[in-house]
Amino acid sequence: MEEKNGEKMVEIRQRRKAGLSIFGGKSLEEQLPVIKTRFFQIGRDLGGSSHHHQYTKKEKELLSRYSSADYFPPHSQVYKHWLLKHARNLDWDRWLMMGIIGLCVGLVGFFMHQFIKLIAEARWDVAYLHVASGNHATALGWIALISILLALTSGALTVLFCFPAAGSGLPELIGYLNGTIIPEIFGLKTFFVKFASCVCAVGSGLPVGPEGPMISLGGLIGLGVSQGRSKFFGRFLPFGRFENPEDRRNFVSAGAGAGVAAAFGAPVGGLLFAMEEVASFWSIKHGWMTFFCCMTSTFITDLFNSAFSGFQYSGDFGQFKPRRYILFEVTREIPVNILAFLPAIIIGIIGGFLGALFTFLNLKFARARLYVVNLFKSTWAKKLVRILEPTIIMTIMAVMSVYLPSAFPCTPFQCVSSVRNNSYFGPLCESGSQYKIRTEDEVIRYQCPEGTVINMSSTKVYNNNSYNQVATLITQQGEEAIHRLFSRQTYYQFDYVPLLVVLGPYFILACWSAGTAVASGLVVPMLFIGALYGRIIGLSLVSLFGVHQSGYWAWMDPGAFALVGAASFFGGVSRLTMSLTVIMMEITNDVQFLLVIMTSILVAKHFRIVCLELIVFIDMMTSPNHEFYTIGDIMTRDPQCLQERTSVRDLAKLLVNNDHHAGYPVVTKSKRHDEQIFLGLITEQELYGLFSTSKDIFIGPDDDGSKTPTASYDVLRDVKYSDDLAIDIKRYASEEEYDQKFVDLRPYINKSSFSIPVSFSLRRCYILFRTMGLRHLAVVDEDNRCVGIVTRKDLMGFHIDEKIRAKEEQKEEEELTPISTAAF
Q: Where does the record place it (predicted)?
């Protein structure tokens, strides 16, 4: 018997780790769907803003695995008793906590930037020496060895130690803040694995960026620090009153905003990102605190990044250097012309189409990846495939980085016509800053011969330097390459062919990398891709109308439209508007092109993206047509209701079967008639909490419960899903003696739970549910009897479409029935 129980405990432990029910059902790995659909299919991969994503049966089963979370704690007797023990109406500790979170996120951002820069510089410094001597094979060997080892390490860390740390973490973070419980995304192990994997992935040279993981790490820090305890360290901060769903979610959203601020050096952009994209619920007061958190995070990151480069102290600690904290600083401003809006609209359209194409191909890569992984039966073989995938991409990138530049000739620095030539030194370019046609000193020489710099007079310096355009784009760290594309008055620094040659393969490889097992983001690739085609549009304007260094036509600058292109592609993929506009301003310091960038982003935004993650999410948009339908049309009818006094066996059966909603309406007998009327809600977690306490809470059939001990709110909130608890619940469900044992639920009922009449507007219910951060919404009839329940899964777009379609079909059948009868 003990051996059997031991095996059962191991099984329960494994299921709990996977985030599944501790009582049965298939694992998520077993349920992963391999979907065979047409290559182009509306609602699956393509669709406008009016289309909802259409899920397959397997995907719907996966969605049903997720549970939801309440935004507000339950308004029960035990909660009010707990609230009396903690300070109320004080905010100083919340402000302090926001400052601590901002400090921690800022330090993490600093360390991430420094590690990535250190690795990237070390990787190419050696390679450039071999390339300069013409030894491409040795350079390729070095780059391939270091890069593949880093990519292999990045993938192995997530696959072998903590798979929830893979990817950017943004879909999971947004899903959590939208109210969905996602296992293992906020653990300490997730933090360290995601950080290390991201540093290795970005440092290796994969077409990825650190911004997505940085935002996710910010949210993780917000939760971990605010709760003040962990499995490993126990309680380390005395802020117990923050251990409730409302504060927890507020600190997570603030931490995510601080992550944006640390990643981009954009405190206002971080605040707007948290408001626009991350948080489903917002308040002015929370906005102030989030802004303070973002400001603190940016301050710490910029302070240390200004003094260190690759962990080497550069002096002047405390002096904020724009070149260090403004990621893509634009030093030469260009006046905007009304004519600039026309190419901006064109760039926006291109950004929208390419953004949709990027997402479409990403979906195809994701399904192809899933198909290949499922070809293998062994778990270790599946893990090996996921680990090797980023190394394959990195091998392609290494070969491309070393050999592709050698296919292009050296480009001499641009010369102005007034500079005389010298037959010994060849064409010479004057380095004087008064000349507007220029080439940046930071371009990559690669294997081009080193030029000669001579001082031919007391004031003028000349050189005959040359550089490789393709090497400048693909052998530098992504942020440095974007710097070169954004540069102003460098009209001919890049030609059409190098830009197009880099754009194609980089687009495909970035799209492929997006779903791999490494912890990474897409911001840097999105900016780079957009800057490439934006620069092409700008260069075409210069080719058509010539170089105008000043005056009415000075707005035609390739670097300016590279910035517009970067914003358009970022907007086309992410659909951000306000936060993206402010972020682009903060990372470039170019206010002149604000209106042009806004135009491009708004145009690009109107192309729909389909979410890749199977996470229950309630979108902010709802159709006005839903006013014609009631909540009764889509609700789940006849929910499982509980009495105020329910037998232990019935409660245990509910938990074991686990086929109902994670919340149960509690009903009581009406004083005026025999009907059972709605009283409030109790959640599945609270029922688990009751069973985790001693049996003293069980009462007999004739006991009124007045002398029965009451479980505390702390016990109900911090349920420990132990193996013994699962075994005890199964025993309660199977033994008949517990039919005569009861639990008094009255102290634990949430009596402030929302309920609406069955005739309530569907659209207004949707708005109420999302705005208030609800998890369950009871539906009652005119006598206050509970006739249905609504959860976020009922309000997902595909479910609403299915229910409305079924109602319309039923309505059509009812209208046709009398006609058919009359014909006979």
A: Membrane
pTM: 0.78
- Coil, helix or strand at residue 283: coil
In contact, 765 and 774? CB cutoff 8 Å: no
Give the separation between CA 213 and CA 226, rounded to whole angstroms.
Answer: 20
Q: Are the C-beta atoms of residues 453 and 463 closer than 8 Å to each other?
A: yes
Other Cβ atoms closer than 10 A to 7: 10
Q: Tell me the CB-side half-sphere exposure of residue 123, using CA atoms within 13 A.
A: 29
- What single-letter amino acid sits at 488? R
With contact defined as beta carbons under 8 Å apart, do 38 and 27 qualify?
no
Q: Which residues of the chain does CATH 3.10.580.10 include?
A: 624-796
Question: Using CA atoms, how far apart are residues 503 and 173, in angstroms rounded to an integer?
Answer: 31
* Torsion, Cα of 485, 490, 492, 497 (10° steps): 0
Question: Helix crossing, 92-132 with 211-227: angle to 10°?
Answer: 150
CA-based radius of gyration for the chain: 30
Q: Which of 648, 663, 609 is nearest to 735 (CA)?
A: 648
Pairing of strands 663-669, 642-643: parallel
**pLDDT score of 88 more than 50:** yes
Type of residue at 712 = S
* 624-796 CATH choice from 3.10.580.10, 3.40.50.1220, 3.10.290.10, 3.40.50.620: 3.10.580.10
**314 residue type, one letter:** S
Percent of the chain as helix, strand, coil, to the nearest 5: 55, 10, 35
**Within the chain, what is the greatest distance between any pair of CA atoms?**
111
Q: Are 336 and 556 in contact (CB under 8 A)?
A: no
Q: Residue 411's beta-bridge partner residues?
A: 467
Tens digits of per-residue pLDDT, 445-458?
Answer: 777 776 666 555 55
CA dist 775 and 685 (Å) reads 13
Residue 497: CA count within 13 A, CB half-sphere: 8
| pLDDT interval class at 238 (50, 70, 90) | low
Taking the C-alpha atoms of residue 215 and residue 109, their distance in angstroms, rounded to an integer, is 10
Cβ(66)–Cβ(615) below 8 Å: yes
Alpha helices (H) in 606-704, listed in sequence order? 648-657, 684-692
How far, in Å, are 12, 722, 729 from residue 23 at the CA level?
A: 7, 12, 10
In terms of Cα–Cα distance, which of 677, 773, 664 is closest to 246? 773
Return the amino acid letter for 817. T
d(CA 151, CA 362): 20
Cα-Cα-Cα-Cα dihedral sign, residues 669, 672, 675, 678: negative
In contact, 322 and 582? CB cutoff 8 Å: no
SS3 703: coil
Q: Hey, what amino acid is at 674? A: D
The DSSP code sequence of 709-721 is ----HHHHHS---
Q: How confident is the model at residue 152 (pLDDT cuts 50, 70, 90)?
A: very high
692 alpha-carbon distance from chain centroid: 35
Tell me how far apart the alpha carbons of residues 423 and 420 are, in angstroms, rounded to a whole number: 10
Mean pLDDT of 405-421: 66
